[in-house]
Amino acid sequence: MFWSRKEPAETAGDSVADRVAIEAEGFYRSGKIHCAEAVLLAVRNNFRPEVPDEVVQLAGGFGGGSGVGCLCGAVSGGTMALGLVLKDDKKRVKELTKELHHWFKGEYGATCCKVILQSHKKIGPLLTGKVAGKVAELLMAG
Length: 142
Fold this sequence. Notes:
- The chain is mainly α.
- Helix content is 64%, strand content 0%.
- It has helices at 16-29, 35-47, 63-69, 73-85, 90-108, 113-119, 124-141.
- The longest helix is centred in the last third of the chain and has 19 residues, at 90-108.
């Protein structure tokens, strides 16, 4: 159903965060999955490839601000990804989730999908990649 990459491809000069960002943006641009799924899938592929594809389906309702334009789906997918990777450290998940939200709000002025799309038309694919890359950075930083 989803694209799986059991062993991430290494290319010269690519950081894990860059790779995750490119992968998530590509998933979104494919038109087969939305922002939340794309972020969760790219992080899963690069940090927890043994986790089954069905886990990514849990993000199904979060695209487009949970379908009503509220919290950005990419941020929701990123939050889920943090929990997936740091499954045994809820305190760290909470800390990194706050950091992700603060970073996102600083970048886009809001975390509400409707608000962002008013001033950043057609930003979905790029935003999805940036969020996925930021999640990877946060995870790599410890």
